[in-house]
Specification:
- The complex is a heterotrimer of chains A (about 650), B (about 400) and C (about 425).
- Chain A is built from 26 helices and twelve strands.
- Chain A is an alpha+beta fold.
- Chain A has four domains: about 140 residues, no CATH class; about 80 residues, no CATH class; about 50 residues, no CATH class; about 300 residues, Orthogonal Bundle (ABC transporter involved in vitamin B12 uptake, BtuC), CATH 1.10.3470.
- A five-stranded antiparallel sheet of chain A has the order 4-3-2-1-5. In chain A, strands 6-10-7 form a three-stranded antiparallel sheet. A two-stranded antiparallel ribbon of chain A has the order 8-9.
- The termini of chain A are far apart.
- Chain B has 15 helices and four strands.
- Helix content of chain B is about 65%, strand content about 0%.
- Chain B is mainly α.
- In chain B, α4 packs across α11.
- In chain B, a hairpin with a 4-residue loop joins β3 and β4.
- Chain B is globular and about 80 Å long.
- Chain C folds into two domains: about 180 residues, Rossmann fold; about 160 residues, Response regulator (Rossmann fold, 3-Layer(aba) Sandwich), CATH 3.40.50.2300.
- In chain C, strands 6, 7, 8, 9, 10, 11, 12, 13 and 14 form a nine-stranded mixed sheet that branches. Chain C has a five-stranded parallel sheet with strand order 2-1-3-4-5, with helices on both faces. In chain C, strands 15-16-17 form a three-stranded antiparallel sheet.
- The longest helix of chain C has 20 residues.
- The N terminus of chain C is likely disordered.
- Classes of the chains: A alpha+beta (about 650), B mainly alpha (about 400), C alpha/beta (about 425).
- Chains B and C meet through α2, α3, α4, β2 and α13 of B and α1, β2, α3, α4 and α6 of C.
Chain lengths: ~650, ~400, ~425
């Protein structure tokens, strides 16, 4: 508090004369803040970051006690302009109209309808500038929220002027979290802006190999370079990063020449375009430089004609290759650090090298997490299929549509049940129930007639998938529907600035593990599982042991479909809910099951993991083209299946079938 | 003593006669050569339908006769289209570029011309260089050869790998589907050099034939497609009626037995797979100049599944079935999506066919699979009073997976 | 066999009957060529309804030239070759006087040869990549200089962005737009190393790595901004991942060219407040014209929750300009209408007046909006009127090209050699 008053006092002294002057010349007896605002009325209305700087400075440096409140209102889009007289007020919405407060007096001056007012809407760039101007007021504000704002603003964009107020505010900081942030910021600002080089180097060395993005964001600008050229040797006294030789990969000749041209040390070379234009100008009787026009359809002939013209003195600026090389040699090209202090750049460079290794390791870890997450999504999408296809051997092309049905069920539940948490808890069993019923219906009506004809069950279920997709379109429309995750699944688990993964992906991962356990439990520990395995291996024998194969098939298929439905809810939470969402998973799911090895849940798991990691691995090599990663992943799988047709984990013996 | 070809294949003669009569009638009634009640767009639709019939025929050979449910034949069809499309596009652009450059003062270098063509073709997709795969694009003859070679080679390599490792049945179907997906994703990339999602367009304008109106071109293509279909039908009929055909059906019904009889099952499958891929490529090369544009969406896995649907609805294992299926479904589809089908008011709800047509198609497909495995072709049986042997539901073979009687009826 | 013959003969007979024997002046037919099924139905169905609403309104106001307008709706089913087929059908069988349609670039490229061959007239209402000019198409959506360039300027000037991530779906619009932007940014002194480009497939859903890549760009200490040309429902996964990663619009702003009110209705926007979009129209625009349009739309569609968007405004302007041009020409004949289209003016829904230029593009203002919690946009910037430019000035090959159908009668005019490169458009 004390410091704030002190700071205001100092600033007030500095700018007092300006403020006093404006106050004196205030038109119509306006109060000081309103005066500043009115003087800059056009700029404020225009609202562009490029021109608003002086206005913010005028307010911030006015020394007026109200300046902070004005800037805060402006930043929060709470500043309104009355259309009738153009005066600015703080506006608060109440009962459909706005309560206007005068900035200078802080008194309520009345109410106005929205139509009588214009809202001043600073864009994000202006808000950032206002934030920067507010830092000096807010750093030691009693309100911790405002102090946090100031720290956040500085973390985003700091300049040298902030270092002193920041240091001044640290002793008085009471909030431990904010104190830590301020200390870190202080270290970063020291690296960047401290006038004493030794202090900067010390701060850089003290940072070690911290992974923080802000540290790298501070260090990298310190080692930023500028490419320059000079005649003769490299000038003394510059902080040179490296010298360059023209004609190498780092500096191709054409680029070097362009630098010479830019520095005014050489004339631009003639481009083929210039050459052609010159040739066109010198067409004489069907010939150019003695070469017949009809022959000028090759580069060599054109060059020859141009050289002829140059020899005849008809064109100027023709620089032969040898002369170009000589000119380039007589100049030196180098990258120069923008930061003049060599110890600082050395320390920064060393720190960055230290960090780079650690960042690389952490990026690999992050990629691994992504791959694991992708694998769990594929596994989740495929686990239902692992039951219907893997265990029962039924090709269900409508599997993707069951995923879609589950997601839409989630959407409908969310429309009816209030609260995102509750609605998800309801949606999961509901999705299971709906798709279980659908699966049972599909099995009873269609698939049971086709057990002996797997190829035809493929086609019939494809027909079903067309029907379901179109029905979803007719019922829900073609728009994507929102399926919103509960608030506690928002955000991400942040290990450090490199490694993080969203909670929703973690949830999907956990769900996938749960289903794995559930599947194993049902198949190995329950009567249904026993019967299912019996029926799959030998239906007649199973039937003669008193098992009802029809009932078992129906329940198993229903189970597989039901799990697809739950997968749909999970997938809808992190991606989209549309009628076509299932189509994106069907081929991948089948491949997951086939690659892993049909009839074995561990195989499906292995397949999903392999697909996930392969895809992420390819993305790593070619980060600018995700589509290529998907393509090559599929090609890889096709080739893989050729060499291991039974998948990663192949069944042996009688269970393997044929 | 061998009977004559047509005596062994009565359907071939009937089919070709019907095809000839249809083409003749369409020509007479077309805009270009006759009285003109048949619009050019309908002639194009018919021409395209004939190409679809040809690829369905190929599908029937590989699936209906050889038992390989390939979900990749539309990829071969699309590849054929791409191969001819490259020449069409290159040549048309070449003509435009040369014409516009003729006015410049200096005669253009070959490099200038190539650059300008590349800029025209790839400028819209943000590139200006010719990828290597366009190397032969200047030569009609070579590109025509590629129409057959590229799908054939892909099928040969893929088939060799797959059949060699004994991938069969539904696994093969899934694998072919994956191949189709990979190919379409590859073509979707701009970097593939075939203009990514945009594909090759403006294919209906034949280079050097600017003066010929589309109404005439469409009839030419109708003739070409009909001829290709007729030849394809004869080839297919010849194949399936001989010993080769018997082995194919043997493989379909019981692969292991045929293998034990000493036949190289893998070779037979590979030959059929590759041959049908080539036929599909030819069909595609005739189809896309009529459609005007070929792009990766054409190759999407679902297109190949639809191909199987046509054959199934038409009646697989009989050549005319495939043709009927493809023609019927694609023409009816075109009618329903054209907006000409009247809405059905039910009082509380109006059925708009645009929304409900796919549901009808999907359902009819399920019903055909369940209740009429012979498809539309089965109606021919009724007409010629052909009866199926009645075994009271007993299997035809020792394995439960072998065909049941309703499928073995021909 | 009888059956076979009837199968083949029935459609022929049908076509014979449906082909009109004589062409009447009344009713005036308007073709609607928007996908009602398939992947693009999500966007295009709305435009079909918009045209129907506009036709309905025009008919209630007495039609055109004393005739009623009859809409002919066909479904090209997001199948690009089908666009060409249906366009031919509309022009030669249904004999429509004008077509409103298309969304994707590839659908437009598919229709172009047909419409130029038959001298049809089409209004294309979606923002697109430019680099094209057809005598027979009026582009009422934004050209790159009416959307991408002002948006990038906003990033550079207003937000102070120094490092750019250009994320797009892998197809022609993002590819060309990003090409133009790379070259534009280079001209503004942004180094090649400060531009990160990524392309993803349609409907992509696995965004975590790409978002992490974007965050990692901040290691240089430069302000990072994302320019997104991600198409359609892939945006949903992208924005969800952004929100999960806690990326604040103040740290890394995202400006999107393909995300409007319609796309936002598919997700919860509370975590996206402050991210941006650039369009020529926002539903939140505060003008009486817009209020009436929104009211009409809600009444027509019977759903108060439906939003309006930029391509709808483009359709609205296009339709009304066409109606005025027909009135002025006193005919629906394509050449006459086209001659009257040049200089046609119609009030924007966002205030001001749109003008149709000789290059078949509109002059209209560019708006930039910040996403709000209710899924609407808060308009934070509105430029002066910008004339759409068919050939961008920022790519060397097209900088020399110019389109002027009114004076020069050429859509691809080389200003350097002063020749018309070609009369037909490039497709």
């Amino acid at each position: 508090m004390k410091i704030r008053v002190l700071a205001a006092l100092v600033l007030g002294l500095a700018c007092g004369s300006v403020a006093a002057q404006t106050a004196r010349t205030a038109p119509d007896g306006l109060e000081p803040v309103q005066t500043i605002l009115q003087e800059n009325r056009l700029l404020i209305e225009q609202g562009s970051r490029t021109t608003i700087g002086p206005v913010i400075d005028a307010l911030a440096n006015s020394g007026l006690p109200q300046a902070q409140a004005v800037l805060q209102a402006w930043q929060a889009k709470d500043m309104w302009q009355r259309k009738s007289d153009g005066l600015f007020f703080a506006g608060q919405k109440a009962d459909g109209s706005y309560t206007l407060t005068d900035f200078d007096s802080g008194e309520t001056v009345g109410r106005a309808d929205k139509n009588a007012l214009d809202q001043i809407k600073p864009n994000s760039g202006i808000r950032a500038l206002i934030g920067a101007a507010l830092v000096q007021f807010q750093l030691s504000d009693p309100d911790p929220a405002l102090r946090a704002d100031a720290v956040a603003t500085m973390a985003r964009r700091a300049d040298a002027s902030m270092l002193a107020p920041l240091r001044a505010s640290i002793p008085g900081e009471t909030d431990p979290a904010l104190l830590a942030q301020k200390k870190r910021l202080e270290a970063l600002l020291t690296m960047a802006f401290d006038p004493d080089d030794a202090a900067r180097v010390a701060a850089i060395d003290a940072a070690g190999s911290d992974l923080g993005l802000d540290l790298r964001a501070t260090l990298n600008p310190l080692v930023a370079t500028r490419r320059a050229v000079s005649a003769g040797a490299v000038p003394e006294g510059l902080n040179i990063a490296r010298q360059l030789t023209p004609g190498t990969d780092a500096l191709p000749r054409a680029e070097a020449w362009a630098m010479l041209v830019q520095a005014g040390l050489a004339a631009p070379l003639k481009t083929p375009h210039d050459r052609n234009a010159a040739l066109e100008q010198h067409i004489e009787k069907g010939k150019v430089g003695g070469v017949p026009l009809v022959q000028l359809n090759s580069e060599a002939k054109r060059d020859q004609a141009y050289a002829n013209l140059a020899a005849a003195g008809l064109v100027t600026g023709y620089v032969p290759a040898e002369e170009q090389a000589r000119t380039l040699e007589s100049h030196s090209f180098y990258d120069e650090y923008l930061e003049p202090s060599a110890p600082v750049t050395e320390a920064a460079q060393a720190a960055l090298t230290r960090i780079a290794l650690k960042v690389g390791a952490n990026q690999a870890l992050d990629l691994g997490l992504d791959a694991l997450s992708l694998a769990s999504i594929y596994f989740l999408a495929a686990i239902g299929l692992a039951i219907t296809f893997g265990v029962m051997g039924v090709i269900n092309m409508a599997h993707g549509e069951f995923i879609m049905m589950g997601a839409y069920t989630g959407y409908v539940v969310q429309q009816v049940v209030p609260g995102h948490t509750l609605s998800i808890i309801v949606a999961i069993p509901a999705a299971f129930a709906v798709t279980f019923m659908a699966g049972v219906a599909l099995e009873r009506l269609i698939i049971r007639h086709l057990y002996q004809r797997p190829l035809e069950s493929l086609l019939a279920t494809f027909g079903v998938s067309i029907v379901l997709q179109q029905l979803a379109k007719n019922i829900f429309g073609t728009q994507a529907r929102p399926l919103t995750a509960p608030a506690w699944l928002d955000g991400a688990w942040v290990v450090n600035d490199v490694v993080s993964i969203s909670f929703i992906r973690i949830a999907i991962f956990v769900l996938a593990l749960l289903f794995l356990a559930l599947f194993l439990f049902i198949m190995k520990r329950t009567r249904l599982g026993l019967e299912t395995r019996a029926v799959t291996q030998n239906p007649r024998m199973a039937a003669s042991m008193g098992i009802n194969p029809a009932r078992v098939n129906m329940l198993t298929f229903g189970l597989g479909s039901g799990i697809a439905g739950i997968a749909g809810v999970a997938i809808g939470l992190f991606a989209k809910v549309t009628s076509e969402m299932g189509g994106g998973y069907i081929v991948q799911s089948f491949m997951t099951v086939v690659v892993g090895g049909v009839g074995n849940i561990w195989g499906t798991l292995a397949g999903a993991v392999m697909i996930g990691f392969t895809q992420k691995g390819i993305e790593w090599f070619n980060p600018s083209n995700t589509l290529a990663a998907q393509t090559y992943m599929i090609v890889f799988i096709i080739i893989f299946i050729q060499f291991k047709p039974r998948g990663i984990i192949a069944l042996k013996g009688r269970a393997a079938g044929d | 003593m061998q009977r004559s070809f047509f005596a062994r294949n009565p359907s071939a003669l009937v089919f070709i006669s019907i095809l000839a009569i249809t083409v003749l009638l369409v020509t007479i009634f077309s805009d270009a050569f006759g009285v003109g009640p048949i619009s050019t767009s309908f002639v194009k639709t018919l021409g395209k339908t004939l190409c679809l019939c040809l690829v369905a025929l190929a599908m029937d050979l590989v699936w209906g006769y050889c038992g390989i449910l390939s979900l990749g034949h539309f990829a071969f069809f699309g590849l054929g289209g791409y191969m001819i499309g490259m020449w069409l596009m290159y040549r048309r652009t070449h003509d435009i570029v040369v014409a516009s450059m003729a006015e410049s003062a200096l005669p253009p270098t070959p490099q200038d011309i190539t650059d300008a063509i590349a800029n025209q073709i790839f400028g819209v997709v943000g590139s200006a260089d010719f990828p290597l795969i366009w190397y032969f694009a200047d030569s009609l003859f070579l590109q025509l050869a590629l129409v057959v070679l590229v799908p054939g080679l892909l099928a040969l390599v893929f088939g060799w790998l797959a059949f060699r490792s004994r991938v069969a049945g539904v696994y093969l179907s899934i694998l072919t589907q994956a191949m189709t997906l990979a190919l379409s994703l590859y073509l979707f990339q701009n970097d593939s050099g075939l203009r990514g999602n945009n594909g090759l367009s403006g294919l209906q304008n034949l280079p050097g034939l600017d003066q010929v109106p589309q109404s005439v071109v469409s009839v030419w293509f109708l003739w070409g497609s009909a001829l290709a279909l007729a030849l394809g039908y004869l080839l297919a009929a010849w194949l399936v009626s001989g010993k080769f055909g018997s082995v194919m059906r043997g493989i379909r019904d019981n692969e292991a037995r045929v293998r034990f009889l000493g036949y190289s099952v893998e070779t037979f499958k590979l030959v059929v797979f590759t041959l049908t891929a080539c036929i599909a490529g030819i069909a595609g090369a005739l189809y896309y100049p009529q459609a005007g544009i070929v792009n990766p969406a054409e190759i999407a896995p679902i297109a190949s599944v639809y191909l199987a649907v046509w054959v199934a609805i038409g009646g697989r294992g009989r050549l005319y079935g495939a043709v009927i299926g493809a023609a019927f479904v694609s023409l009816v589809s075109s009618w329903f999506t054209g907006g000409q089908a009247p809405d059905v008011p039910l009082g509380f709800y109006t059925i708009k066919w645009v929304d409900w047509w796919l549901i009808v198609l999907g359902l009819s497909f399920v019903l055909v699979t369940l209740f009429a495995p012979k498809g539309i072709g089965g109606l021919v049986d009724l007409w010629v009073h052909r009866k199926s042997p009645d075994r009271h539901g007993a299997d035809l073979g020792p394995s439960a997976g072998a065909l049941r009687e309703q499928e073995a009826s021909e | 066999m009888n059956f076979l013959r009837t199968t083949l003969a029935a459609p022929i007979a049908l076509a014979a009957f449906s082909a009109p024997v004589w062409a009447a002046d009344c009713p005036i037919k308007v073709g609607v060529l928007h996908s009602l099924s398939g992947t693009m139905a999500i966007s295009e169905t709305t435009l079909k309804d918009t045209v129907l609403m506009l036709v309905d309104k025009q008919n209630k106001a007495g039609g055109l030239l004393g005739c009623q307008i009859e809409p002919v709706v066909v479904d090209p089913a997001s199948d690009w070759p089908l666009f060409a087929e249906k366009a031919r059908e509309l022009l030669s069988v249904q004999e429509v006087d004008v077509i409103f349609g298309g969304w994707t670039s590839v659908s437009r490229k598919s229709v172009l040869p047909v419409i130029e061959e038959l001298n049809g007239l089409m209004f294309y209402p979606v923002q697109y990549e430019g680099e094209e000019s057809s005598k027979n198409v009026f582009y009422t959506g934004a050209a790159p200089n009416q959307q991408a360039i002002p948006a990038t300027d906003y990033f550079l000037d207003e937000l102070g962005v120094e490092k750019f991530a250009l994320l797009g779906t892998d197809y022609v619009y993002p590819r060309t737009t990003n090409n133009i932007l790379e070259s534009y940014l280079a001209s503004k002194g942004v180094s090649e190393n400060d531009i990160f480009v990524n392309y993803t497939p349609f409907g992509h859903s696995d965004w975590s790595k790409i978002v992490a890549d974007v965050v990692a760009l901040g290691a240089d200490g430069k302000k990072v901004g994302v320019i997104s040309t991600i198409n359609g429902d892939a945006n949903i996964g992208f924005y969800k991942e952004l929100a999960a990663a806690g990326i604040n619009a103040d740290d890394i702003p995202v400006i999107a060219f393909s995300v409007g009110e319609e796309e936002l209705s598919g997700l919860d926007t509370t975590n996206l407040v402050g991210h941006l979009a650039a369009w020529n129209y926002f539903m939140s625009s505060d003008t009486p014209e817009n209020a009436e349009f929104v009211k009409d739309w809600h009444a027509f569609i019977g759903d108060e929750k439906r939003v309006t968007n930029d391509p709808m405004e483009a359709t609205y302007i296009g339709f009304n300009m066409w109606a005025n041009a027909v009135t002025a020409a006193e005919s629906t004949e394509v050449d006459a209408v086209r001659a009257k289209m040049y200089g046609q003016e119609y009030p924007n829904l966002t205030g001001g007046t749109a003008v149709m230029n000789g290059n078949h593009h509109l002059s209209k203002p560019v708006l930039i909006g910040e996403i709000q919690e209710d899924g609407q946009f808060d308009i934070v910037s509105q430029t002066d009127v910008v004339a759409g430019d068919a050939w961008t000035d920022f790519l060397p090959a097209s900088a020399v090209l110019k389109s002027d159908w009114m004076e020069l009668g050429c859509g691809m005019y080389n200003t350097e050699t002063e020749t018309c490169v070609q009369i037909k458009s490039n497709y």
